[in-house]
Design goal:
Keywords: Coiled coil, Cytoplasm, DNA damage, DNA recombination, DNA repair, DNA-binding, Endonuclease, Hydrolase, Magnesium, Metal-binding, Nuclease. This protein has 204 residues and is of the alpha/beta class. The protein has a single domain, classed as Ribonuclease H-like superfamily/Ribonuclease H (Nucleotidyltransferase, domain 5, 2-Layer Sandwich), CATH 3.30.420. The protein is built from five helices and five strands. Strands 3-2-1-4-5 form a five-stranded mixed sheet. A hairpin with a 4-residue loop joins β1 and β2. α1 packs parallel to α2, α3 packs across α5 and α4 packs across α5. It starts with 8 loop residues before the first strand and ends with a helix.
């Protein structure tokens, strides 16, 4: 009996930030089973100007993309925070990561913090300590990844692995709905054209 091999999907999770940009890579695609590949953090000094810090983030991320060759990049979706300046820096770092992936033809997906927490802990309001504990257990790590940005990056990668089938089904359903709408509008336009032609012929 032939053995069906399930393709492995490599996901780079990114917890964007200027001071610390967490990066975590896992291999998934086999149901709930995920394997740890690498984890780390790209750091930039606060005394550099914004452009220089973003360049360092880009350089660090590009090194990971070229070395580990992920199939997908999962980035945390940034929401407005009380500290607008921090939120803007985080969003800009996320944009740099998405651009680096897009230049290489790598798919990019965004997940909200609550989606990530719910995926790995079952609680969308879990704190960072709970996320770190669960991701250490899920990936069978000997020690907890530090700092928290690194653990969050791994959680993003695991979240995408587990949510990917649902995302794919939703994309197929949306594509099917759009195709059905297109066909309906085409039939309606054809019927209107036919009716208009008949009316013109009868009025002569």
């Amino acid at each position: 009996m032939s053995v069906v091999r399930v393709p492995v999907v490599r996901v780079l999770g990114v917890d964007p930030g200027l001071t610390r940009c967490g990066l975590g890579v896992v291999d998934g695609g086999r149901g709930r089973e995920v394997d740890h590949v690498d984890v780390g953090v790209v750091r930039t000094p606060p005394d550099l100007d914004l452009a220089a810090r973003l360049l360092r983030v880009a350089d660090g991320v590009e090194e990971w993309l070229d070395r580990l060759r992920p199939d997908v990049v999962a980035i945390e979706r940034v929401f407005a925070q009380h500290n607008v300046r921090t939120a803007m820096g985080t969003a800009q770092a996320g944009g740099v990561v998405a651009l680096a992936a897009a230049r290489r033809g790598i798919a990019v997906h965004f997940h909200t913090p609550s989606e990530v927490k719910a995926a790995v802990t079952g609680n969308g309001s879990a704190d960072k300590a709970q996320v770190t504990t669960m991701i250490t257990r899920i990936l069978r790590l000997e020690t907890a990844p530090k700092p928290a940005d690194a653990a969050d990056a791994l959680a993003l990668a695991v979240c995408h692995c587990w949510r990917a089938p649902m995302i794919e089904r939703m994309a197929r359903a949306e594509a099917a709905a759009q195709e059905q709408k297109r066909r309906y509008e085409a039939r309606l336009a054809a019927e209107r054209a036919r009716t208009g032609t008949v009316r013109k012929a009868s009025s002569r």
